[in-house]
Design a protein that fits this description.
By secondary structure, the protein is mostly helical. The protein has helices spanning 3-10, 25-30, 33-48, 51-59, 65-71, 74-81, 118-125, 137-148, 152-166, 191-194, 218-221, 229-241, 249-266, 276-291, 304-311, 349-363, 387-401, 413-430, 444-456, 459-462; strands spanning 97-98, 134-136, 167-168, 173-175, 271-272, 313-315, 328-330, 340-341, 368-370, 376-378. The chain contains 20 helices and 10 strands. β9 (368-370) and β10 (376-378) form a beta hairpin. α17 (387-401) packs across α19. It binds protoporphyrin IX containing FE (HEM). The site of protoporphyrin IX containing FE has 27 residues, from α7, α8, α9 and α14. Protoporphyrin IX containing FE (HEM) is lined by residues 116-120, 140, 144, 148, 150, 155, 158-159, 162, 200, 207-209, 212-215, 279-280, 283, 286-287, 290.
């Protein structure tokens, strides 16, 4: 669907260039009553928690060795700024054991959507989100918190991105796989006219990107959803050689470094740019960060049983785990039958960003994308290398990124503004970021261009692989 059609149909009174930036503007967005209420609520909750308890719990979030070193002195500063996103004592009482009887595993049926995310696939296979793989932001937030202890700030960011880019922001629904006619305005009734939202697997947008751990690049054969046993085999080899026999942070970092190099070499439309590249690198950290049995860094281990079960990686021979040539097939993802313990504390954006930085600084992958004639178009310059500044940079990159992509979901401006205000802006403010969006009034568009260039660079608009959403 071309933006002009959407705009004519729905947004007659709004300028279409940057729909949610004009005329409302970011200040308006941040002054939105829902965002204000949320920030105030979280600040009050934060103040109510005793400082000592807060520090002890957070320092036990399981930040692994390398990450703790990386964060070092900035760790408490970052956490202190995550106002209101720190869990209460009630939320972290001991470790919870899974699977739960009332959420039995069930393989997906032929019309059920499954996608590139083993976490969401697992949640659907156990009925924590609808088994058909069509879920709302709220359902995803609740399920990721219940089973994996994902912080509300982090799940809101990912799920809102999924709904804006690949779903229907009005009903807040998305397919956790590919395009599906059950998603869209009026439950998809208008999709013939307006186009069908891509699902979270939609490539070149906020969530799905190249150089993934176990999925191929979209450009290579159009399938960025299926689990690729050969890629899991490579990950397994890193677990043996780098991870002391586990899928720890060292193992996943080395796997990412290799995957980036291999993808860039094979994919003529390779695209690895913020913010989607951060989602890809974050997903690498999620492997030990969420799938470990127990809390990462506090005795939890990303062991074979856990990782293979959540990934649905079935070894072709039993008892041969130490063989680097061991091969795999794929079965539906499930919570380890033998029993598995959820991490003790929520993974907030601060931890995830620390994980992304750890992966990034290890591999130092150039940000950008392939342009015409084998050229390389660069992404943003001057990416900060401390977690808080990097978090704020990412938020800006996310805001800079969305306007170019909105056409593919059917969007009413006010709805998007409300969604961003309620679900994303509180996290932005809570991290202590300086809000430096261009003022969307007056010379908004030209300011927006410079601002957008700073945060997503030329690659967003000029790299060939970034542009299945391009409008011309
Ligand atoms: C909160 C909503 C979530 C959304 C919208 C989401 C979406 C996605 C998407 C689009 C990808 C593909 C990224 C790529 O191109 O590499 C992905 C990958 C991944 N996600 Fe999620 N995810 C969510 C939550 C989770 C959770 C809770 C976990 C773990 C418990 C998780 C674990 C992973 C992992 C490990 C990958 C990498 C898959 C691979 O091997 O390639 N995600 N996710």
């Amino acid at each position: 669907m071309r933006p002009s059609t959407v705009c004519v149909a729905f947004l007659a009174s709004f300028a279409c260039s940057f729909p949610w930036l004009k005329p409302e503007g970011i200040e308006t967005l941040l002054n939105h009553p829902e965002a204000q209420a949320e920030i105030t609520k979280r600040l009050t909750e934060h103040e109510a928690i005793h400082a000592n308890q807060r520090e002890t719990r957070q320092l036990n979030t399981g930040l692994v060795g390398g990450l703790v070193t990386l964060l070092d002195g900035t760790l408490s500063a970052v956490l202190d700024n995550v106002l209101g996103l720190i869990p209460t004592n009630e939320a972290v009482k001991g470790l919870k054991r899974f699977p739960e009887e009332k959420h039995p595993y069930q393989a997906p049926g032929p019309t059920d959507q499954r996608g590139p995310c083993p976490g969401l696939n697992t949640l659907a296979n156990h009925g924590y989100i609808p088994r058909n793989g069509i879920a709302t932001i709220g359902q995803i937030n609740a399920a990721t918190a219940a089973v994996f202890n994902m912080g509300a700030d982090l799940s809101s960011l990912l799920a809102t991105g999924g709904a804006i880019d690949g779903g229907d922001i009005i009903s807040q629904k998305m397919s956790i796989g590919g395009a599906d006619d059950r998603v869209g305005v009026l439950n998809g009734a208008l999709n013939k006219v307006l186009g069908t939202p891509s699902g979270i697997a939609g490539h070149g947008k906020f969530n799905e990107g190249d150089a993934s751990a176990t999925r191929e690049d979209f450009y290579l054969n159009g399938d960025n959803i299926s689990f690729k046993p050969e890629l899991f085999k490579q990950l397994h080899q890193q677990a043996i050689s780098k991870g002391n026999g586990t899928y720890n942070v060292d193992a996943i970092k080395e796997h990412f470094k290799n995957r980036y190099a291999a993808s860039k070499a094979a994919n003529k439309q390779f695209y690895f740019n913020l913010p989607s590249s951060a989602v890809v690198m974050g997903a690498y950290y999620f492997i030990p960060g969420f799938f470990s049995n127990g809390t990462i860094g506090a005795g939890g281990i990303a062991n074979e049983a856990s990782i293979t079960s959540f990934y649905g990686a079935k070894p072709t021979k039993e008892g041969q785990w130490s063989d680097p040539e061991l091969t795999y097939t794929h079965v539906p993802e499930r919570i380890p039958e033998q029993g598995w313990y959820r991490r003790a504390t929520p993974m907030t954006i601060a931890e995830a960003v620390g994980g992304i930085l750890d992966v990034y600084l290890y591999a130092l992958p150039p940000m950008g994308g392939s342009g015409a004639d084998q050229s390389w178009v660069v992404g943003p310059a001057n990416i900060p290398n401390n977690p808080q500044a990097f978090s704020c940079f990412l938020y800006n990159a996310i805001y800079a990124n969305f306007p170019s992509e909105l056409f593919n979901s059917v969007v009413l401006v006010e709805t998007v503004v409300n969604a961003l205000s309620g679900l994303i802006a509180p996290g932005y403010k809570a991290l202590g970021c300086t809000v430096n969006f261009p003022d969307a009034t007056g010379t908004g568009v030209s300011q927006y261009d410079a601002w957008s260039k700073m945060y997503v660079g030329d690659a967003k608009y000029k790299a060939t692989g970034s542009g299945w959403y391009k409008t011309t």
